[in-house]
Amino acid sequence: MSEQFVDLDGIFNLALKQTEDLIKLGFDISDPCVFTDLEWIANKYPEMAERCNNTLLELIKKQAAATPAFVGAGYSHNDLDFF
Predict the structure, then answer these.
(1) What's the pLDDT at 82?
(2) 67 within 8 A of 57, measured Cβ to Cβ
């Protein structure tokens, strides 16, 4: 029986592109309600978790620098009075 090899670099690159696309669409990737492809890959392939998590943190920092008023402005317990 032959084993199939997983292209981890290809999977990572696709997840990175899809996460960058979320940013371009205006999603706040620091919002805990947003589950990115990088997070999904980190959970599915533990050997890639550190790489995915570090990349995600860098993307969050870049997004925060580009749009500081937007990032982190998502759901907060302080907003419950408005509901």
Answers:
(1) 46
(2) no
